[in-house]
Amino acid sequence: MLANAPRDATGAGGVSPRLVDEYSASAYLAVSVQTVRRMRARRARGEMGPTAGPAYVRVASAVRYDQRDLDSYVDALPRAGGGRAA
To answer: How far apart are CA 42 and CA 25, in angstroms?
Structure first.
């Protein structure tokens, strides 16, 4: 498989996993993998806010995003007109 190729997001038995890799996170957020990496670097430096991106975890050396953290990140983003999601 190519290094930058999208990965299959379904786990064993076709069940969506709770932890997803950066490729799946980038697809979910509709941004490039490079953008997800930049956001993660900002968060690692202690920055907060939308530019720092969603929380992540390391499982051994692998970076993973909890689906709930991705949802929380999207919910907290400013909406057009200045409002937030209900």
So the answer is: 16
Do the beta carbons of residue 40 and residue 63 sit within 8 Å? Answer: yes
Spatial neighbors of 41 by CB under 8 A, at least 6 apart, are none
β-partners of residue 60 are: none
Q: Which residue segment(s) compose the domain that 22 sits in?
A: 18-76
The count of structural domains within the chain is 1
pLDDT tens digits, 12-60: 555 567 999 999 999 999 999 999 999 999 999 998 888 899 999 999 9
Give the closest residue to 40 by CA, choosing from 76, 70, 8.
Answer: 70
**C-alpha gyration radius of the chain:** 14
Residue of 60, 62, 49 whose CA lies nearest to 20 = 62
Q: Which two structure tokens, joined as six digits, stand for 24?
A: 């799946």
